[in-house]
C-alpha cells in the first residue's frame, strides 16, 4: 500500500495538470480574441482607405453610405471584441492564479512527502544501527565467555 503522502502528491500533481490545461485553454481563447481584434483593425483601416478613395472620386451617396454603415458595423464588432478580450484576460488571470495555488499546494505536499521519506529512512537507519550494535555486543559477550 502506498503511503498517504504519495497518494496526496499524485492527486496534487493531477490537479496541477488540470489547472495547467485550463490555463492553456484560456490563453488560447485570449489569443484567438487578439487575432480577431487585429483582423477587425485591418478591415477598419482597409475600408476607411476605400471610403476616402471613393470620396475623392465621383461617387454616389448610396455607395458612401454603404461604406459608412459597414465601418460602423466594424466599430461595433471592435467594441464587442474589446469586451471579449477583457473577459478572456480576466479568465486567464483567474486560471493562472488557480494554477499557481495548485502548484503551491503540490510543492507543500511534496515537501511533506519528502520529510516522511526522510523520517522513514532515518528510522530504518536507526533500527539497522541498533541491530548492528546488538549483534556486536552479543559477539563481544560470547567471546568473553569463551
Keywords summarizing the entry:
Helix Hairpins, 2 helices
Largest sheet: none
CATH architecture of the domain at 4-104: Orthogonal Bundle
Mean pLDDT: 92
Bin the helical content: over 70%
What class, by secondary structure content?
A: mainly alpha
Helix/strand order: HH
How far the N terminus sits from the C terminus, by CA atoms, comes to: 47 Å
Give the count of helical stretches.
2
Strand content: under 5%
The CATH topology name of the domain at 4-104 reads Helix Hairpins
Please provide the count of β strands. Answer: 0
Question: Which CATH top level class of the domain at 4-104 fits?
Answer: Mainly Alpha
Structure report:
This protein has helices at residues 4-56, 61-145. With 146 residues, it is an all-alpha fold. The protein has a domain at 4-104: Helix Hairpins, CATH 1.10.287.1700. It is rod-shaped. The two termini are 47 Å apart.
Short description:
The chain is mainly alpha-helical and 146 residues long. It is built from two helices and no strands. The protein has a domain at 4-104: Orthogonal Bundle (Helix Hairpins).
Write the layout of secondary structure elements.
Layout: H1 4-56, H2 61-145
